[in-house]
Design a protein that fits this description.
This protein is an alpha+beta fold. The chain folds into two domains: about 5-45, Winged helix-like DNA-binding domain superfamily/Winged helix DNA-binding domain (Arc Repressor Mutant, subunit A), CATH 1.10.10.10; about 60-140, Lrp/AsnC effector binding domain/regulation of amino acid metabolism (RAM) domain (Alpha-Beta Plaits), CATH 3.30.70. Helix content is about 40%, strand content about 20%. It has five helices and four strands, in the order αααβαββαβ. A hairpin with a 6-residue loop joins strand 2 and strand 3. Helix 2 (about 20-30) packs across helix 3. The radius of gyration is 20 Å and the shape is elongated. The two termini are about 15 Å apart.
């Protein structure tokens, strides 16, 4: 899909604030609101915009602990990788998980309420026998965060 400067500006505005009105965006790109809507529809149909989301303050909801878990699984075959993906997908605390090359086999980003919640989560991971051990990295603060 080819994007011009106006498309990129529209995407930047929606990445910053997905609720920004077409009229507001139209003023910035010198188009009419219906023309902006047509472009957004085309960008969605072409896959450049996958969807719209809400940014949530998780700490305000009691989810105070964010971790990156380096998981070591022994020989990670396709069947065990798929089984681990299924286990992780059922856990609401898991935000993202990646099969990686390097020191660990899998990296999991999770958000939990507290240390007791983390301990419960780790015991559940070990209970399936796929994850042999982990290294836990606690996120202290975000240095850079990009959306979109």
């Amino acid at each position: 899909m080819r994007l011009d400067g106006i498309d990129r500006t529209i995407i930047a505005h929606l990445t910053e604030d997905a609720r920004r009105s077409y009229a507001d965006i139209a003023r910035d790109v010198n188009l009419s609101p219906p023309a902006v809507k047509r472009r957004v529809d085309r960008l969605r149909a072409g896959g450049a915009i996958a969807g719209f989301s809400t940014s949530v303050n998780h700490a305000a909801l009691g989810w105070n602990l964010e971790v990156l878990l380096l998981c070591y699984c022994g020989p990670l075959r396709a069947t065990t990788r798929d089984a681990l993906a299924e286990i992780l997908s059922r856990e609401p605390e898991v935000l993202e998980a990646w099969n990686v090359g390097g020191e660990a086999d899998v990296i999991v980003r999770a958000r939990l309420r507290d240390a007791a919640d983390l301990e419960r989560f780790l015991l559940k991971l070990y209970g399936d026998g796929i994850v042999e051990h982990t290294k836990t990295n606690i996120v202290l603060s975000r240095l850079v965060e990009r959306r979109g």
